[in-house]
Design a protein that fits this description.
single chain; 212 residues; 50% helix; alpha/beta; five-stranded parallel sheet
Amino acid sequence: MILVGLTGGIGSGKSVVSSQLASHGAVIVDADVIVRELQLPGQRVFDDIVARFGESVLSSSGHLDRAALASLVFGDTEALGDLNRIVHPAVGREMMRRIDDQRATKNVVVLDVPLLVENPRTGLSGTLVVDLDPEIAVERLVAQRGFTETEARARISRQASRTARRAVADWIIDNSGSRLDLARQVGLAWRWMCSLPPADADAGRVVGASDS
């Protein structure tokens, strides 16, 4: 298994890159997708969130209202800490389960993690960073995702800096151009990924985390 970490700031286009890599044949282990799956009704994470934050975080359909939950926790350090303690261990276990399923294969596995700089992983074959000027990211978040400029800048400020992400990169995709240019760069990145050595035996674990 070749295991490549993929990261990028909010608004960088990381999800588009991940999707394009999947079309080339990569196996995607997407932290955000796993979070959403574990927050579905019937999951232990969902039950624990409702027990901690109450039914005000539910939509009329009985699903988790992610916007309502975000509004509760992002101004409250204690609440955010409680949410992280509910979500992060469960997500980490599921990510490792999916990685473990691929260890004996020759697949190129992409570990798609927004906070890869903040929570580095062991033994990766390489790290791919989707890079974008934060000012362009703000413009795209406002135009494409309905953020206000203040919201966009606040979200960007809570993540690792552009400099920090670039510092950990083995390969950088510049997403400041057209979709055609992005697709060309993803193709080049894919060829690089396929040339990488297999990942270490313990690859994918958060650096410094215990196995418990």
